[in-house]
Specification:
Two copies of one chain form a homodimer. The first copy, chain A, is an alpha+beta fold. Chain A has a single domain, classed as Winged helix-like DNA-binding domain superfamily/Winged helix DNA-binding domain (Arc Repressor Mutant, subunit A, Orthogonal Bundle), CATH 1.10.10.10. Helices cover about 45% and strands about 10% of the residues of chain A. In chain A, strands 1-3-2 form a three-stranded antiparallel β-sheet. The radius of gyration of chain A is 16 Å and the shape is elongated. Chain A starts with about 35 loop residues before the first helix and ends with a helix. The interface of A and B includes residues 24 and 122 of A. The first copy, chain A, binds a DNA duplex through helix 3. Chains A, B: This is HTH hxlR-type domain-containing protein. Chains A, B: Keywords: DNA-binding, Transcription, Transcription regulation. Chains A, B: It comes from Amycolatopsis japonica. Chains A, B: InterPro entries: HTH_HxlR, WH-like_DNA-bd_sf, WH_DNA-bd_sf. Chains A, B: It holds the Pfam family HxlR.
DNA sequence: CGGTATCCACATCGATACTG
DNA sequence: CAGTATCGATGTGGATACCG
């Protein structure tokens, strides 16, 4: 409650959307901090700009716009603007974008199974 | 010839090691440009510092050192220094590091199948 | 051989303010 | 609602030089 549409995006593991979580992995972390998360949010269906801002807590509209444009440019998502007031824009995975599901699942599975080991190693590391 | 040990690292797809190739994806592209490639190089066995510099063309020793330290800190690789002259250091995947194979394979498979579509979309994009 | 030590260019990200 | 426009902090990667 008070969290808006956050519950529409079912978390796949406890802190998957937490900043810095290594499960933000996916084929699209090519120096882009948010693209993988956006794709994850869109896996369940089309989302509006403001709906994406909710689970991606902390992202500014500027950065979210840049991320969405990059994904659109690479053919991963479509942008559909409806001529209404107030304006409504929906983002949706393309068929190409949906092919990302498999590798992302593999990465999420890895994170779910091995993240604790990574964290433990990091904490045990001198320094 | 003249390429040193490059052929020891069998390329999994034509330009997998090319700079900017989206197959450099893997769980370790968390803002790190080279870690995924390093893990890939180590999948076939232990490698020396200078052996890693060959396939990762363009990486400086400074950046390679940082990358290796980060992977070591996260428990993905071990560093073994042999007390010889000239010095010899070997890097090797840990058992945790080897678990990265599955998600990385999934990413490589994705790239091999869908990279052309991404590139085509990018070229067709206005601007 | 296997690194360190500096310095620097560039890009990404974020904060803030404003708009149709 | 869905952005755009600036500006600035931060940090990552690269160039170069040097060391045990």
């Amino acid at each position: 409650m008070g969290e808006g549409n956050f519950e529409r995006v079912k978390p796949l593991s406890p802190d998957m959307f937490a900043p810095g979580c290594p499960s933000n992995l996916t084929p699209f972390r090519i120096g882009d901090k948010w693209a993988g998360l956006v794709v994850q949010c869109l896996e369940e269906g089309p989302r509006r700009f403001s709906e994406l801002r909710v689970p991606l807590r902390g992202v500014t509209s500027k950065v979210l716009t840049e991320t969405l444009r990059a994904l659109e440019r690479d053919g991963m998502i479509t942008r559909t603007a409806y001529d209404e007031t107030p304006p409504r824009v929906e983002y949706e995975l393309t068929s190409l974008g949906r092919t990302l599901f498999e590798p992302m699942e593999a990465c999420r599975k890895w994170a779910a199974e091995h993240l604790p080991e990574l964290v433990a190693a990091r904490e045990a590391y001198p320094g």
